[in-house]
Design a protein that fits this description.
The complex is a heterotrimer. Chain A folds into 2 domains: about 5-55 and about 135-180, Alpha-Beta Plaits (2-Layer Sandwich), CATH 3.30.70; about 60-125, no CATH class. Chain A is about 45% helix and about 15% strand. Chain A has 6 helices and 6 strands; from the N terminus they run αβαβαααββαββ. A 4-stranded antiparallel β-sheet of chain A has the order 2-4-1-5. Chain A has a two-stranded antiparallel sheet with strand order 3-6. By secondary structure, chain B is mainly alpha-helical. Helices cover about 70% and strands about 5% of the residues of chain B. Chain B is globular and about 80 Å long. Chain C has a single domain, classed as Alpha-Beta Plaits. Chain C is an alpha+beta fold. Chain C starts with 16 loop residues before the first strand and ends with a strand. Chain C has helices spanning about 30-40, 45-55, 120-125, 165-180, 190-195, 210-215, and strands spanning about 15-20, 60, 65, 75, 80, 100, 110, 130, 160, 200-205, 235-240. The chains are: A alpha+beta, B mainly alpha, C alpha+beta. Chains in contact: A-B, A-C, B-C. At the A-B interface, strand 2, helix 4 and helix 5 of A face helix 2, helix 6, helix 7, helix 8 and helix 9 of B.
Amino acid sequence: MTESESKVVDLLAVFSDLAPAADAVEQLHAMGVHDDSMNVISGIPVTEAMLGRPRQWTNVPRIAMGGAILGMGAGIFLAYISPFLYAYPIQVSTQSFIPGPPTVVVLFELTMLGMLLSTFLGVFLDSFFPNYRPMKYVPEISDGKIAILVECTHVEEKKITDVLKKLGAESVKPAEAQHL
Amino acid sequence: MTDHKQHTEHSHEEHLREKHLMLDPLPRGKMNEMVMEAMTTPPTWKWWLVFSLLAAFVAWGLFYKWGVLIAKGQGEAGVMRPDYWGIFLVNTVFWIGISHAGTFISAILRVFKAEFRRPFTRAAELMTTFGLVQAGFSIFMHMGRVWLFYWLMPYPNQRLLWPNLHSPLTWDLLAITTYLLSSTMYLFLPLIPDVAMARDRSTGWRKNLYKILALGFRGTEGEWTHLRNAMSIFAFAIIPVMFSVHTIVSWDFAAATRPGWSSTIFGPYFIVGALHSGMGAAVVVLAVIRGTMKHMNYFVRGEHFDAIGKLMLIISMAWAYFFFNDYMVQWYGGDKWTQQLLHFHEAGPMGWMWFTMLITNIAIPWALLWNAKWRSNPWIVGFVGIAINVGMWFERYIIIPISVTINRMPFTWRMYTPGIEVPMGIGTVALFILLYMAASKLIPLIPVWEVQEGQMAHELKKFGRETVVSVSELE
Amino acid sequence: MIRPEEIKMSAEETGKWGMVINQDICTGCQACVAACAMENNITFVGEVDAGYGRSMHWIRIERFWEGEYPEVKMTPQQPMLCQQCGHAPCEPVCPAFATVHSQAEQLNLQVYNRCVGTRYCANNCPYQVRAFNWRDYQRPEPLPNQFNPDVTVRRMGVMEKCTFCIQRIHKAQDKAKSEGREVVDGEFTTACAQACPANAIVFGRVDNPESLVSQLAHKGHGVKHLEELGTLPNVTYFKGG
């Protein structure tokens, strides 16, 4: 295998419908293209099951849970520890030094705040946002198209292009990273 | 015979498609174009006129008058003994109430998969964020020494003090901060794919703006998965946060020793009141968007006013139930101060406000929203929305300055006359509309991807001879 | 860092100041109101704001008519001041700890410098005895020449209220301590009690059964205002006796 033959290229095939895109994924599998060498970019959320792709791993729920625990920790600090940091004990009315029901309110709000902030942050971490580097993309995708990004060697390029075109791809071309 | 049947069958289908946005699909590219055009059409001179008038109101009513208030003290407002709380807090509760519509429409309807929500979730979420900004302004206006507001924040300080967690106001601060942050994030997440769409279709400064906002979103499988996971966590988690916010606002009153205030039903009563005014405001915003922006009559249709109108009617009934429950128990209790207060509400100098509240909050919605045809008319539903908001503002006015007039020390009874609160309150309304107008020109108001997703899920199906709407669950 | 043993509840503390007001001998002369204003550097609000309900007094004389005109009867004068509640509704609601319970004197303290002006305390006071500085009021001449150096002045946006002349309590305690003795009952009194020509106001330690104030307070027909709210007020009123 020469050097030019083993060079990896990315092909971007744009489909306007779900069914041909799913067929294309199936065909690519049959041709021995591994799922890791494929990516689907779409203008609407297309579930992995619709295209016969493996389930995407997401850390968002775990990050959210972690944030909830951190938030609750902040709540515990505020509710149970911060009163001990005053210069002297402060009493209001005859309420106990650490009031019971109000701590529930504090714990609830801070747990939720921690959870939601980290859910938001989780999207950024998992999706590598913000990311302003050049990326492989065509603007037609946000017109509701489904694009399949296939990583293949130079040798396979022609074959795959033909197969995808046959299955109804609007266009198949080598993808170029560009500023979005 | 068969011809005729086919004809009616056909027109029935036509009718369904005309009625439901979800059955009347356009290519995504076309919808993108429509939304982009609605957003990027240069404003007309009328738009600029309204915009500059509002800006002048904000500059004068909100900022100049606030400067006067800070320089000269709360004496500029109408507050005194015993009305220590006046219109500033009425406005705070009012704006927090308005902000509940966004979460209700966006989160509760998303959780329950109510399909009619799709085109206007963003419009409602914007109301939440902008409404909370006004609520924040209003509560800071109320403070006697607002320049020390940071003393209420929990942070290590040289005073060796932390906020008083016994105080409902501290809970308020925590809850409103949580709600403002989470509703802003919840507004932003579903916006990412739409600003990515706008980024792909714009040039110049807009391109740069959307490029930054879109964060490099392409729509890969991973990005969608993370986004959808986060959105469903938000949709579920923000509902209890929303309930907690208005419950805590109600505890500011319910935890006090005032006659008429120490009511255990205030929590749910306030939540329903908030939804009442919020839905009313949402429908007004939708009517204005539909009436003034290009292509919006495709996205926002009679069916949406009809659906929100139904919700408004149910919420109005729920509000009436809670109002009556609160009233009945207080009336029955026979505490002499409460009796006096109830009498003052109805027969006092501000009695007209109490009766107007009942008319606009109950009579008008019940009279106009029972009819499906009227309910589909933006003008009628919009009118009911305005009426409800007037009524809900009156309700808060009755609960705050009118109710504190009557206390257990009759020597101090005195009527409240608003002062600088009026221009400043108008200033918050102006700022709300101003922010909304600016947003309508800067971000796509319609979540196009959600509309397309919905249109993919809907189809007409035959059950025997009848053509019906059928929805597939895509998730 | 506060150690847990430092946190004591009010009931365990000693030192409880209280007041008895005899409405039968109160003439409504307002001498207490004037004396209180002088003693505590209370600002001068002026006609317009006072007329609108912003009068600043830590003590006021309330007076009502009973019945319908012309069959009216005047009720006894009722001096109303902070009742220094044991279970004060004003205290827990302040987000900034500007009004707290003093462990040593069993009084409600108002910490002016901590106040941010949310006015929740005043709203929650069933006796309506808190006064807010609605503006920075000007004191007309010659009032600026008679400030009491023992009492701080308050600025705009701050809540204030009766302190039971805490500066006098501390002065008397300091003096007694330097002389190595306890404070004697009647050694000092508050400005309002001192100024009252009819001796309608008596001030002292209610936790000392020998003191005049506790003897009067336990006479039997005294009432505490709005006791039904559970506020545990420290001021006892007499009338019709």
